[in-house]
Amino acid sequence: RIFGTCRVGMLCPVGRRAAASRRLLAFTRRLSSSSEPQSVRNIGISAHIDSGKTTLTERILYYTGRIGAIHEVRGKDGVGAKMDFMELEREKGITIQSAATHCAWGDHDINVIDTPGHVDFTIEVERALRVLDGAILVLCGVAGVQSQSITVDRQMRRYSVPRLAFINKLDREGSDPDAVIGQLRDKLRLNAVAMQIPIGVSGDHEGVVDLLERRALRFSGPGGEEVEAGEVPAGLQAAMEEKRAELLEKLADADEEIAEFYLAEEEPPLGVLRAAIRRQTIANAITPVFMGSAFKNKGVQPLLDGVVSYLPAPTEVTNCALDLDKDEKQVGLTGVSSDPFVGLAFKLEEGKFGQLTYMRIYQGKVGRGDTIQSMAADRRKVRIPRLVRMHANEMEDVESVGAGDIVAMFGVDCASGTTFTDGKTKLSMTSMFVPDPVISLALVPADKNAPNFSKALGRFTKEDPTFRVHTDDESGQTIISGMGELHLEIYVERLKREYGVECSTGNPKVAFRETASTRSKFAYTHKKQSGGSGQFGRVEGYVEPISSDALGQGAYEFDNQLVGNMIPPEFVTAIDKGFREAMLKGTLTGSPVMGMRVVLQDGLAHAVDSNELAFRAAAQGAFKQAMATAKPVLLEPLMSTEVAVPAEFQGTAVALVSQRKGTVNSMEGAEFVTIDADVPLESMFGFSSDLRGVTQGKGEYTMEYKAHVPAPRDKTELMVKKWKEQQAGKSEE
Hints:
The longest helix is centred in the C-terminal third of the chain and has 20 residues, at 713-732. The strands form eight sheets. Strands 18-17-23-14-15-22-19-20 form an eight-stranded antiparallel β-sheet. The chain has a seven-stranded mixed β-sheet with strand order 2-3-1-4-5-11-6, with helices on both faces. Strands 25, 26, 27, 28 and 29 form a five-stranded antiparallel β-sheet that branches. The protein is built from 17 helices and 38 strands. Helix 7 (237-254) packs across helix 8 (256-263) and helix 13 (572-582) crosses helix 14. The protein is α+β, with helices and mostly antiparallel strands.
């Protein structure tokens, strides 16, 4: 199934043009109707920033006949890569939001989602992997497994997404695919098996050797569309046999059928071998590794063959929903188009024609004009006025789609994560994981009466669950929160470009937290009498850190150890709620409290004066009482930081990290060194410009939230003093 070739040799130019025309015609015919689930592949392309995801996607679209010419990231030619259609994406050369497209390879339809590589936009990866059946993990042949590679792997594991690995950039100096495969095994604990070996690396990279079929694949032509299958060079014969033996050994460890051949020292037939690789890839027992250079147009077509051959069809993946009519009992979805319709709205965009809702069809089929029902609380029925397939920012109308497809709808107002059915069943898909924001900024519009300010913020919060907006009670300022400096910077820029609202920002505000460092008892009575029935509630128990070894770990736990009916059971929920409300504002700096367990042991109620309001107030008073003797601790966010610099700047970069109170955990690499460190978030502001300054613009870094840890004593004292001054000033006013 190699593009433009037969098993050995190449088609003539006329043959290539005819083959391309046939593919395009077949694709156009399939576009207006739904495909059989067995011939559909839903894949995501994910990686660390600057590993070549969007470049790879551009080649996939070109070789599948979806676009007629290749354009590069950053839009240097005035066009830019197809999937980076936002002006900001082309200016900065990064992917900011995931983009979906649809293409065909052989007899298979492939829905592709290109995701961002920067950790600030990790929610885009999260919701893409939530609805995809398989993925391609792209790795740089020089840098190997990087921080965001680890994050993406964790997300893939969360949703049990089978993956292929593609080692990219083998044309770069210092590329070493064997080292990258070793990192896949050591750092990600993946059972990585090489499907190919390179024919040369760096400037000598010509192509790859297919280990299964023992043949060399070389790529030529203006866009690498001509793939010549030939004999393996004599100098690579030994390496090929060695790697092929390793492939069989690792596969035998995972697959019983191959193990029988291996123990009998027999060569498995090629069909049996491919079936075993597919079986174990879908089971997440192995990760097939392909390689090449997307920028130099090498190795992409065999990767597409791997997608079709080894990644699952929608019917081969287990998807479950919750039956709302049966106390949220988990039920399996069939993935068959003839069964009742179930779909999940996983991404929202505001377009010029209104809200665009991306939806994955898990079961059944849906068409333009059909009425579907939301499984949200309102159970609202909506009619689908328009159904489209997305090609980056272009839309292609379709009449109907079936199980396994990914489409978009116009005119359907809903929230991200809403499940839709045809009304015959009451099923709801489970929600996806949404990380908490780690940084906040005060946002001040130049024109306070700008009509689009609130509208824009409302749209952004609806589109992005990690972007939060609230008004500060004390200052009255609008506070925006997100996953990092770049995340918030992009939204401020979008406010200006898309809505014409100029804004200035205040100093970044770090998400500090508080916790108790020791167990502390409480025995608090809330009593209020003001004529008529009053309020009465008494609670006794203690608070303690969830983990005494790692303060701040966990969120909040409520343990009801009441014996008897000293407090009627109907008031326990109110007590729990009261503690939750009290934890929103700690006693040290007014920061939210985390990592706490509340144990309720005893209490007292009054037959007339006790009610939910009284016990909520009692819980709030008890919390303040307990925290006074619980030795509260201020927690600050610690970031797992990865700094990549040329070797000559290694010492300077380490010194820069140390100046910012960071702890260096490890350093790897020869020509290009990767420094892994833990650094407090508050110390990382402005780090990007400082790093560029000391490395002549050659250094880069990424960071990801790791945990909240106790802040140093001097920082705690400063924060407490500032908080007390603010409270004193507020009292005087």
